[in-house]
Specification:
Radius of gyration: 18 Å
Order of helices and strands: EHHHHHEHHEHEHEEH
Bound molecules: magnesium ion
Distance between the termini: 28 Å
Largest sheet: 6 strands, parallel
Number of domains: 2
Structural class: alpha/beta
CATH topology of the largest domain: Rossmann fold
CATH architecture of the largest domain: 3-Layer(aba) Sandwich
Number of helices: 10
């Protein structure tokens, strides 16, 4: 499915790829409308409908991921509200072994998320991600999202990865397509980002519902120099 002999650098999305997207879906689709309705006095049905239409309008744009934007728009302390349901923040069960194998095999591992720096901090506080990944990047520092060509250009300038030897893993098909258009050669989709929903059928990219079957190949094609060399 993937040619691990060619892959030196692995760029990883966070939400839905390493962490269960159930937290984010629950927060934005259930908890935030509920708390907004309680605090502002509008009905829950209206709060849900209004937010869904605003989400759809901002889909893929930096504001959609920006906690400052939503805090201002709704006059609510978004990070505090997230903390109310933060017990739902969890790593996918197959991820620790996947990240360990990537690290053991000597590959460069970089987290590249559209999540706001405050969302990233909360997730690092609640999970062990930082234990496995040395470089953690929120695209907010570049002012553009992974959906945009400009982001990939800026990211490549920063990290110096080569398109031909880089794997990018994400659960968003529009984002994978943007990376493909930029020229990233190896792409992998996550078909089951939310543990509470059914896996999707993905035909556009190689896709997994579990990283475990990849481990053997990752380790068989280690990038570490052995003494025999
Ligand atoms: Mg994602």
């Amino acid at each position: 499915m993937l040619d691990w002999a060619q892959i030196d650098t692995v760029l990883l999305d966070m939400d839905g790829t390493l962490l269960d997207l159930h937290f984010d879906n629950h927060f934005w689709l259930e908890h935030l409308p509920l708390r907004w309705s309680e605090i502002s006095g509008i009905s829950l049905a209206d709060a849900k409908a209004q937010l869904q239409s605003e989400y759809a309008e901002l889909n893929g744009k930096i504001q959609w991921y920006c906690l400052d934007y939503w805090g201002e728009r709704l006059q609510l302390p978004i990070t505090e509200l997230k903390r109310e349901v933060m017990d739902k923040i969890q790593m996918r069960p197959d991820v620790p072994a996947f990240l360990t194998a990537l690290k053991q095999s000597g590959r460069d591992i970089v987290l590249v998320t559209n999540a706001h720096p405050d969302s990233l901090s909360l997730k690092l506080e609640r999970t062990d991600l930082a234990k496995y990944i040395d470089t953690l990047i929120s695209t907010h520092e570049f002012g553009v999202t992974k959906e945009s060509w400009a982001l990939w250009q800026k990211l490549q300038q920063r990290l110096g990865f080569k398109n031909d030897t880089t794997l990018f893993v994400d659960d968003s098909l529009p984002i994978l397509t943007a990376a493909q258009n930029f020229g990233i050669k190896h792409l992998l989709a996550v078909a089951n980002p939310d543990s509470q929903q059914h896996a999707r059928t993905i035909n556009e990219f190689p896709a997994i519902t579990d990283y475990t079957p990849l481990l053997q190949d990752i380790l068989a094609h280690s990038k570490l120099r052995t003494t025999a060399n």
